[in-house]
Amino acid sequence: MSKKTVVDIVTEWDIVAARQLGRNITKELGFDTVNQARITTAISELARNIYLYARAGEIEIEKVDTEDKKGMIIIARDKGPGIEDVHKVMEDGYSTSGGLGAGLPGVKRLMDHIELKTSIDKGTVIRVEKWL
Amino acid sequence: MKELQAQYKRILADYVESQTERNLYIGQNFIRQLIQKSVTPEEIINIHKSSMEEIYPEIPPAVSHGYDFLIEVMVHFGLTLREHQSLLEHQEELRIEMNVAAKIQNMLLQTEMPKTNALDIGHISIPIRKMNGDYVHFLHNDEDYVSVGVIDVVGKGVPAALCMSMVKYGLDTLEYTNGEPSYVLEVLNRIIERSVDDSMFVSMFFGRFDCARNIFTYGSAGHEPALHYKASEGKFHMLESKGLLLGVMPDVRYSQHEVELEEGDFIVMMTDGVTEFRNQSELDSRKVIEALLLQLKDLSAQEMCEQMYQELKKLQELALDDDFTVVIFKK
Ligand SMILES: Nc1ncnc2c1ncn2[C@@H]1O[C@H](COP(=O)(O)OP(=O)(O)O)[C@@H](O)[C@H]1O
Ligand SMILES: [Mg+2]
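The joint structure predicted for all components is written out below.
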């Protein structure tokens, strides 16, 4: 079984809503407390980037719960300015939070897989996965 | 992970049972293992929480919630830690690359000391960091002349090293011309002015010894004056020559001067890493160097260079803070 839910990100409180949705699904799937915290943190970072840099966008969370695969696919989508230096943003020490560990390299560490598509003035799509 | 958790629980239970220093010590040793295995802070708190719940089934829910909160906020600590580790690894890679680069630089900049009966030649060049900002280039392709360029790139590290290679190749192209010092300086100035960034300056002393006439001809581009010891007078003379640093302006003219070398005379060329002592004026440091050279004057040119380095290092309390280069031509 696989189910998708979408949260629109417009205000800062929508970040909380996306976290909440993600947290509920992590619990339903049976992730332990540490991984619940990690996945939620990743969702939070992605939603925050939309809120800060693209003004608006959405977080889609897909719950995958089949015989042979259990986990989550999270897609952050926006029609914002896009990311100019894609390779740099995945490097440590580049985020404006500078040395605080989080940001996109942090998301990459927290999750099993990350894919980033972006184009200037068209927007950004980031897809991350975490499997049980 | 299961095994680690069981161990942690045992150690924790021992401490809850009896709060001895010994049990704390064991705990710290154990955490070191966990760090080595890259167990993150949030995982450790989770292990702690589960262990507490197992040791203490009656633990109040408020305490468990408190741990959950701590796990959540510690995720960021964990990320910071891992970022830190990966930056350290990155730094290590850079360090290794830097070592390789330094080796290549040393190979590229190797200069062969001329073998000649006309002169006793000594040379030392000790970099303060991995990459040397000083460079010595000897030219000696026939029996008539021995020439040397002593070069100091203002600016340090990798950019200076790259600039240095250019200077070397510039000098290599002059190899067979037996150039006069003023000509050599003018050509190099043009090369450097054209191709190097404005923030990079190069000082150079160029000297050429005419073996048949015993005449030393020299010119300088903003470099430290050399010292000429005249045995007949028992005194030093400064070999100064005014000239702009290389690479500042195109088409600079450089002058050159001549001195005669008599038996027992020697010429000491050096970079500012030799003459600039901390807490001392230039005048005083020159006096120190002259007094030192006077003591060493009966050694071979190479021994003089090496002793000079040892003595000045002692004098500066082993804290030389610039590349150190000396070349001695001794008659
Ligand atoms: N959705 C996005 N749209 C446009 N730019 C973004 C987006 N997400 C991230 N960026 C750019 O990438 C940079 C790095 O992001 P991130 O790694 O989250 O660190 P931080 O947000 O702390 O700067 C941001 O500063 C921003 O310029
Ligand atoms: Mg961010």
